């Protein structure tokens, strides 16, 4: 049977090895993405902007239809609808301003 000090030492070595392996895996992933996906860009997809418009400007029923496009789990739909209810408490003018900011960010990302 190993002493507690030896167990701690073995655990520390295993933890260090796991940490180094994860760091190496992350580096390999990033290099692979850089080499294989160099054509990728930051364009906002139309579905995301449609969902944002629906969140800020449209009634809850339209927002729910937009959410279903992403095929989320039921608890995610319920959480998103709670957020929508809080957003709807804001004055419409403020919600329109927030949507305009999202559109401006999209146009900057897509240019």
Question: How would you describe the overall organization of this protein?
Answer:
The protein has 111 residues and is an all-alpha fold. It has 2 domains: 1-40; 46-110, Uteroglobin (Orthogonal Bundle), CATH 1.10.210. It is 79% helix and 0% strand. Helix 2 (46-57) runs antiparallel to helix 3 (60-68). The longest helix has 33 residues, at 4-36. It is extended and about 60 Å long. The model has no long low-confidence stretch (mean pLDDT 75). It is found in: Secreted. Its main location: secreted. One of its GO terms (molecular function) is phospholipase A2 inhibitor activity. This is Uteroglobin.
Number of continuous helical runs: 5
Overall pLDDT confidence: 75
Tell me the name of the CATH homologous superfamily of the largest domain.
Answer: Secretoglobin
The CATH architecture classification of the largest domain is Orthogonal Bundle
Task: State the distance separating the first and last CA atoms.
Answer: 65 Å
- At the fold tier of CATH, the topology name of the largest domain is Uteroglobin
Approximate shape: extended
Order of helices and strands: HHHHH
What structural category characterises the helix and strand content? mainly alpha
β content, as a range? under 5%
Number of domains: 2
Number of strands: 0
Quick synopsis:
This protein is mainly α and 111 residues long.
